[in-house]
Amino acid sequence: MSAGRVVVLGGATARTAEAVLRAFLGAGYRVVATARRPEAVRQTLARLPGGGAVEVVEADLHDPQGAARVVAVAQERYGRVDAMTTLASGGFQQRPFAETSLDELRQLVEGNLYMTYNLCRAVLPAMLAGGGGHIVTVAGGSALDPGYGRALFGASKAAVVTLTKGIARDHKGQGIVANCLVAGTIATEEAQGYLDAESLRA
Question: Quick one: which of 167, 114, 159 has its CA closest to 139?
Answer without folding.
Answer: 159
